[in-house]
DNA sequence: TTTAGGTTGGGACAAATGTCCTTTATATGA
DNA sequence: TCATATAAAGGACATTTGTCCCAACCTAAA
């Protein structure tokens, strides 16, 4: 739900210490509300989050949003676009101030070619995302709202974070009205 | 929707010609209705389909099924489980008679370590699956049934295949009754 | 031919969800 | 302080979807 990947984070921190060329790899800060990736736009960087929370979401043509994941420490962004040379699949917006490593795409591709360890990390990460995405799609389709709602409430409690009602609804793929109904039902 | 990957297929066909050890890699046939993977079960093989159609689906505890994808020529199965050493995430059942290459997991892992080309193919495949899975989750949540229904009808027409109503409903994450209603609405 | 099982199609009602709108809080800047 | 915008909560109604049925149809085995 709130995804993190500390293997990635320590990998990139190590690399950042050694790598002096800030054209290729640099640590940047982004205020809350920044779009790191814009759906259908062209991205020139791959990001790995050092600190903060982002949401990764689709904006559909009917004006509704669907949040795929909340990404936090150590999560990678824009890797799919880099691998497949595509425009951005969805948008990624910062929900808090965010510090992230920005990696040039050619440098990212070099890493993939040369560093077996990095490849493995990435393969592992994509596999985990597939597991999350597909099992969530299944349970969202086949269960009532409350099932997913409980999970997102737990998350906020455990991690001590606050997600706006609108974002919660977008994560569940429902309207605000339905979210409110489900919330009163839980009490 | 009906996924194929001809790069994988020619890769594995090449390898199969060279590789004499049938313990590691062999071509097998499975009659319609065979479970190549069983949800929560342990798998000892990774498969690459040579011919035929399979469905990859979750069985939820409430008795409902959700079909993630229909996999056909060149698609790989069980790779996520092999990469992450997990039990099977979902089941894969053959919808027609199927011919598939069965790869021993240790041999699969060796391939991943040694063959840069294979790694790239797999990374590309996982990336594409993420694109499909997440964008489908989004549109299924945010649009009416008819949107997805039209696509699955097109598929059957173009590919000249027949999917049972039950499977169509499971793919759309709805009940048979709702599927029938949507079908009459389309006329 | 008959039977049994599976697939398909749809009626009737209940439950869930969306749409539209209003009201109440809670900020935040003028 | 006031005004204004924004988030949150929920009423009323329409629409969608699910549940529980039953009937028609087809196919394969007896």
UniProtKB/TrEMBL annotation, chains A, B:
CC terms in the record's Gene Ontology section: cytosol
Keyword Transferase annotated: yes
Signal peptide: none
Keyword Acyltransferase: no
GO function term, MF aspect, one: DNA-binding transcription factor activity
Keywords: Kinase, Transferase
InterPro entries given in the database record: cNMP-bd_dom (IPR000595), cNMP-bd_dom_sf (IPR018490), Env_Response_Regulators (IPR050397), RmlC-like_jellyroll (IPR014710)
Domain Cyclic nucleotide-binding: 22-129
Protein name per Swiss-Prot or TrEMBL: cAMP-binding domain of CRP or a regulatory subunit of cAMP-dependent protein kinases
Organism of provenance: Pedobacter caeni
Organismal lineage: Bacteria, Pseudomonadati, Bacteroidota, Sphingobacteriia, Sphingobacteriales
